[in-house]
Specification:
Layout (H helix, E strand, L loop, with lengths): L1 E5 L2 E4 L4 E8 L5 E8 L6 E6 L6 E3 L7 E6 L4 E6 L8 E9 L13 E2 L3 E6 L1
Parallel strand pairs: 2-11
Antiparallel strand pairs: 1-3, 3-8, 4-5, 4-9, 5-6, 7-8, 9-10, 9-11
């Protein structure tokens, strides 16, 4: 499965962005996650959605502001980000794992990763 993110950019604090990740190959059976990373820090969990879209998971820092969704018809997963804050600045990565029966909040669970898209939030 190849994953390609898009939708990053520069936005002012309080603004919104929608990240998109398109998958080639098998997608319907894959749980999907979004992670982010800043220089010198480990990759951290942002949001995840189960393969059947029944369950969603969010880090406490983004809950209520970010929404993850999965469109199986388009082989895409989205991350709608509202009320962005400067501390949301990072490279955002899309990840997938088939079925994903383990903890979806940890990077080691995932099998496939995109190349990342930069999100910069100015104060």
């Amino acid at each position: 499965v190849d994953l390609t993110e898009s939708g990053g950019g520069l936005v002012q604090a309080g603004g919104s962005l929608r990240l998109s990740c398109v998958a080639s190959g098998a997608f319907n059976s894959h749980a999907m996650g979004w992670f982010r990373q800043t220089p010198g820090k480990e990759r951290e969990f942002v949001a995840a959605i189960s393969w059947n879209r029944v369950n969603t998971y969010y880090d406490g820092a983004v809950k209520g502001r970010f929404t993850i969704s999965k469109d199986s018809g388009e082989n895409r997963v989205y991350l709608q980000m509202n009320n962005l804050k400067p501390q949301d600045t990072a490279v955002y990565y899309c990840a997938s794992v088939q079925y994903g029966t383990r903890d979806l909040t940890t990077p080691v669970t995932y099998e496939y990763w995109g190349q990342g898209t930069q999100v910069t939030v100015s104060a």
